[in-house]
Amino acid sequence: MATSHLPSSFPSMAMIFSFFVLLLLLENAVGETRHYTFNIHYHNVTRLCHTRTILSVNRQFPGPRLVAREGDSVIVKVVNHIANNVSIHWHGIRQLTTGWADGPSYITQCPIQTNQSYIYNFTITGQRGTLLWHAHISWLRATIYGPIIILPKRNESYPFEKPHKEVTIMFGEWFNVDPEAIISQALQTGAGPNVSDAYTINGLPGLLYNCSSNDTYRLKVKPGKTYLLRLINAALNDELFFSIANHTVTVVEGDAIYTKPFETDKLLITPGQTTNVLLKTKPEFPNASFLMAARPYFTGQGTFDNSTTVGILEYEHPSHHKSSKNLTLLQLTLPPINATGFAANFTGKFRSLANAKFPANVPKTVDKKFFFTVGLGTSPCPKNTTCQGPNNSSKFAASVNNVSFSLPSVAILQAYYFGQSNGVYTTDFPTQPLIPFNYTGTAPNNTNVINGTRTVVLPFNTSVELVLQDTSILGAESHPLHLHGFNFFVVGQGFGNFDPNKDPANFNLVDPMERNTASVPSGGWLAFRFFADNPGVWFMHCHLDVHTSWGLKMAWIVLDGSQPNQKLQPPPSDLPQC
């Protein structure tokens, strides 16, 4: 009887194969480690026929893409080669137990000083989609910003059609002069700061501006294809409408959270927000090019940059070599500047997928309820001086529950961790307005804010409901609020004053949108819920930097939980010192 003889190397080959399969499985479970180096440099850039020295990462404007997969660890060494202090925020990254890597100066870290470096080390847990990174001190994010692209885990797909190509579109603001000089002067005089000179698409202003016909972003597409556009608003002070002439898009994601898809021909995106859309191109070559444009949504009383940035959507000609120069350029219409109705209608369309794979874990019951007013106010002028605020005896200010937040001179997280809060911060932030008034009606006579570094302390895993109420003091205005360290569920929004007896009955606890940045409607309110499941100190502020500079900001302190993975990790050895 014949016997088969396997080669003696077979067991070892099988073992090696098994070993590699195990390695692959482990890599899929644990993820890779992605290394980046961000050198902060001076960098000469010309826009609108003005050349100025900007601050940038790796001399790129906008800055480099940070690409990773869900589950990956990310290590970014940031080296400061400029005279300004700097820190980088990874906007929307949860930073579970790694608050030291979150980035806001004087909240989670002292800034990185000249010729110093700091290594940001974090893991991307349970997140995939589009986010952004930007400087988080003063107004440096005007030019220090870039995209974060988190791909799904290997062998996982999008919950929508696989796109032919993915394209990142970042909106920004260009200033012909140094933005640091602008905000410095404004804080000194108490006036509203000078506004930007242009908006940009991927750093380019577009042909409607002076000397900018060559500085126009062009998106080249093929007919009959689907493109995933990753839209990011990195503008400093402006919410933006966006549209592409004669095209509709399908919204599939907001703030790196998949949404129930919906179609639209116009979008609104606030600073700090991201929106992923699918663009289906026309089936045949259309014999035309299409304008795409962004311009501001604004309801306040101050001045703003009332201009429009444009790019061009160009179809590849079937014969490839034919020029698109003589093609018709189709125009578009955007909503009116103050289209608050459109803003409310559009944001109301966002819904979480809320399915088995991507559940909406919204708190159904609430441990702690907070009611915060957000809006503008005044600070009195220093003695024997005149100011340029709402009148010559006051400066513009902004506040949450009438507390205008003062940044300390050391990082709050450091003071908290080492038990040295004395003289740095207090834990008595008001849970509701100290003096109730008709928030969206006639403003009170006394509009002065109080100053302080006040925080709210939350036990680990507290379920929180926060209602944010806009006020009419110095004009009702939309405020895009960003919460660091968490995603929250937008359970309700409305106009006028929030009614605690009637409005909660209409809260959406089934499929509310999960976000990290959401706008408090102009003359209205926004309600959101979240679990305080991330220990550390977490900044919450308006993402219009002028309002942040004026004090529309506060911080939450979330205590450690009982389990090892519920505790703030120790600070890294290279944590910058103040």
Could you characterize the architecture of this molecule?
The chain has 578 residues and is mainly beta. The protein is 9% helix and 38% strand. The protein contains five helices and 33 strands. The strands form seven sheets. Strands 10-9-12-17-14-15 form a six-stranded mixed β-sheet, with no helix packed on it. It is globular, with a radius of gyration of 25 Å.
What's the tally of helices?
5
The helix/strand class is: mainly beta
The portion of residues assigned to helices is under 10%
Q: Roughly how many Å apart are the termini?
A: 83 Å
Strand order across the largest sheet: 10-9-12-17-14-15
Instruction: Report the C-alpha radius of gyration, rounded.
Output: 25 Å
Q: Quick summary of this structure?
A:
The chain is mainly β. It contains five helices and 33 strands. A six-stranded mixed β-sheet has the order 10-9-12-17-14-15, with no helix packed on it.
Q: How do the strands and helices of this protein lay out in sequence?
A:
Elements: H1 10-30, E1 33-47, E2 50-57, E3 66-69, E4 73-80, E5 88-91, E6 117-123, E7 129-135, E8 145-151, E9 165-174, H2 179-189, E10 198-201, E11 217-221, E12 226-233, E13 239-244, E14 249-254, E15 257-264, E16 266-269, E17 274-280, E18 288-297, E19 309-315, E20 328-330, H3 340-347, E21 368-380, E22 394-400, E23 403-405, H4 412-417, E24 450-452, E25 455-458, E26 462-470, E27 479-483, E28 488-495, E29 513-515, E30 517-520, E31 524-532, E32 536-542, H5 545-550, E33 553-558
Parallel strand pairs: 1-4, 3-8, 9-12, 11-19, 18-20, 21-26, 23-24, 25-33
Antiparallel strand pairs: 1-2, 4-6, 5-7, 7-8, 9-10, 12-17, 13-16, 13-18, 14-15, 14-17, 18-19, 21-22, 26-31, 27-30, 27-32, 28-29, 28-31, 32-33
